[in-house]
Structures are given as C-alpha cells and as structure tokens.
UniProtKB/TrEMBL annotation:
Domain of life: Bacteria
GO molecular function, one term: cytoskeletal motor activity
Topological type in the membrane: Peripheral membrane protein
A single GO cellular-component term on record: plasma membrane
Protein name: Flagellar motor switch protein FliM
Keywords for the protein's UniProt record, in alphabetical order: Bacterial flagellum, Cell membrane, Cell projection, Chemotaxis, Cilium, Flagellar rotation, Flagellum, Membrane
Subcellular location: Cell membrane; Bacterial flagellum basal body
Source species: Bacillus solimangrovi
Family statement: Belongs to the FliM family.
Record-annotated Flagellar motor switch protein FliN-like C-terminal domain positions: 254-324
PANTHER family: FLAGELLAR MOTOR SWITCH PROTEIN FLIM, YOP PROTEINS TRANSLOCATION PROTEIN Q
SUPFAM superfamilies, sorted: CheC-like, Surface presentation of antigens (SPOA)
Functional description taken from the UniProt entry: One of the proteins that forms a switch complex that is proposed to be located at the base of the basal body. This complex interacts with chemotaxis proteins (such as CheY) in addition to contacting components of the motor that determine the direction of flagellar rotation.
A biological-process GO annotation: bacterial-type flagellum-dependent swarming motility
C-alpha cells in the first residue's frame, strides 16, 4: 500500500496539535495499527496498470497524428485529432455513454483474438462524408436513415484509416486490422460481456467548424496476450529497429516517383464580371507583377522558389534563382 505524503504545513499543524495536547500521540499509534478498509467495485475491475494505460496513450497519440495527416489529405480541409482521455471501464458503461444512434466500425485485429470498436460521432461522420462528396463539410445527424451509398462511403473511409492503426501499433505488435462490421445501433452490438473491462481511447476531432469524438474501445481480452509489452520495462529494453538498406532504397525510389504539382505565378489581376464577359481576342489584362521582379514558383500550394522566365529550345521554361527563405518546410 502506498504511503501518504504530508506537506510541510500539515506536518507543522500535526506537531502543534500534539504539543498543545489537542491530539494524543498514543491514539495516533493505535489508529495506525487498525486495519484500513478500501472499497473495491468488482464491476469496475481495474485490469490495466497505470504503466499500461500510459503506453496505450502514447500509441494512440501517434495514431491521432497519423489520422490528422490522413484525413487532411482525403478531405482537403482543416483537420485536428488529439487524444482527450484513456480510461478503463466496463463494456456496458461504454455502450451507455455513446449516442443511441451512432457510427460503429468493428475491426478484427489478427493475430490478436477478439474485436475492437471504433465509434465515430455522427456529426463527425457526416462532415467527413460531405467533404468526400465535394461539399463544405456540413453536418446533419440522420444516422438512423443511412442509405447504402452513404454506408459504403463511410465504411471505405474508416477502413482506410485502419491502415494507420497498423502503423501506430507496429512498435508493439504487427496487427492486420480488418473491418468486419458496420453498425449504427450500439444495442445490436455485443462484442464482449457487459462487465468485461475495456480501455476506451477518446480522440477529440475537429473537421473545419465541426467537432466531435472518435472513441476506440479495446476489450481486455484482446490486449491480454501483449500486456507485458505495454510496460515501461519493455519500452526501455526494446532497441530501435534499423531499416535495411533494401528498405531505404525502396523508399528513395518511391519518393523519386512521387508526382507533385509545380506552377509558376506570372501575376495576378482583378477584373469585374462584366469585363470578363466582354473579353475578346487581343485584349490585354494588366498583371500586378513587374517584368524585372522574380516570379514565385509553388510546389503544391506552397511557395518554394523565385525564378525568371525564358526558353529551353522551342519550349517555354523558367530558371530557378533561389529558394524562398523562411517558407514552409525549408530544405525539404
């Protein structure tokens, strides 16, 4: 049993009470000998140590960063995902805590036995679907009336997100997440017994102006075979895995084959709709770029270089003059 540590002010007050006779030292010794009883709720059995909870939190903080990057690329809007809390509670309590109608993705994670659950708040799920279909990311909660097309779009999106889960867990175990079920009513989903302890990782998620939670529910029975690997001793003893030369060369080849959009900004101009409609051959639009000023070259949406125009053979070309200092991700 852990000992209670007193602050200096509490120690001073205790010594003062003994010296003035308000408290008897013999009574204190008698109280120490009495057994202290602590209430234990077997329905809320704490089967994960604080050490293991911290390891799970660390794994899913990495997963949250991966989801932020993945969803930002898929939905092309502002995304922020972060771990809000990691708790161990009975499965029944988790089911009661989530909305009566929500988006539930059930995954098998071989070689581990059992299934894990990803619950996505309907507001978040609909915002994702709206962005996927080219909308602004608006959210409407009508999850009980999902069409087959909406169900397919959502399940495909979260199935792809499971690849990041594989990478996040790779430092502990190589899992292969497989989406096996998509459900909207938690009452129809009975993964484990109601009193089974589960660990719930809550991810605070923001998509544009819409916010909500993504909850990952992992039963104790799933993690039981690898609990020793979730201790600090395992993390301290494990050595950093070095990449093989073949892996490094394969990564280099992939990077070289990556296609990125490159464009040169000749200048900008503002005209009215009426002027635009009346444009004809040989009309001139005056840009805000001076001919003796270098042009900006963008890689994707980021300004990376200054350049000047010219010709290479019979083709138009640009000559890179210098990098833009202080730009986004200099040197990458």
């Amino acid at each position: 049993m852990a000992e209670e540590v007193l602050s200096q002010s509490e120690i001073d007050a205790l010594l003062s009470a003994i010296s003035t006779g308000e408290m008897n030292a013999e009574e204190l010794k008698k109280e120490e000998k009495e057994k202290k009883v602590k209430t234990y709720d077997f329905k809320r059995a704490l089967r994960f140590s604080k050490d293991q909870i911290r390891s799970l939190s660390r794994i899913h903080e990495n997963y949250a960063r991966m989801l932020t990057t993945f969803f930002a690329a898929q939905l092309r809007t502002y995304i922020q995902v972060g771990v809000a809390s990691v708790d161990q509670i009975p499965y029944e309590e988790f089911i009661r805590s989530i909305p009566k109608m929500t988006v539930l993705n059930v995954f098998e994670v071989p070689p581990l036995d059992g299934r894990i659950l990803m619950e996505v708040n309907p507001n978040i799920a609909y915002s994702m679907m709206d962005r996927t279909l080219g909308g602004r990311g608006g959210s409407v909660n009508k999850v009980e009336n999902l069409t087959e097309i909406e169900t397919k779009i959502m399940s495909n999106l979260f199935e792809k997100a499971a690849d990041n889960l594989r990478e996040a867990w790779s430092t502990v175990i190589d899992i292969d997440p497989i989406l096996t079920d998509f459900e909207v009513n938690p009452q129809f989903l009975q993964m484990v017994s109601p009193n089974e302890t589960v660990v719930v990782i809550s991810l605070n998620t923001t998509i544009g102006e819409t916010s909500g939670m993504i909850n990952i529910c992992i039963p104790h029975v799933v993690l039981e075979p690898i609990l020793p690997k979730l201790s600090v001793h395992y993390w301290m003893q494990s050595t950093k895995k070095e990449r093989e030369p073949e892996e490094i060369e394969a990564l280099k080849k992939r990077v070289r084959r990556t296609v990125v959009p490159l464009r040169t900004i000749l200048g900008n101009a503002t005209i009215s709709v009426n002027e635009f409609l009346n444009l004809s051959t040989d009309d001139v639009i005056q840009l805000d770029q001076k001919i003796d000023e270098p042009m900006t070259v963008q890689v994707g949406e980021r300004p990376k270089f200054y350049a000047q125009p010219g010709k290479q053979g019979n083709k138009m070309a640009i000559q890179i003059l210098e990098n833009i200092q202080g730009g986004d991700d200099d040197g990458e």
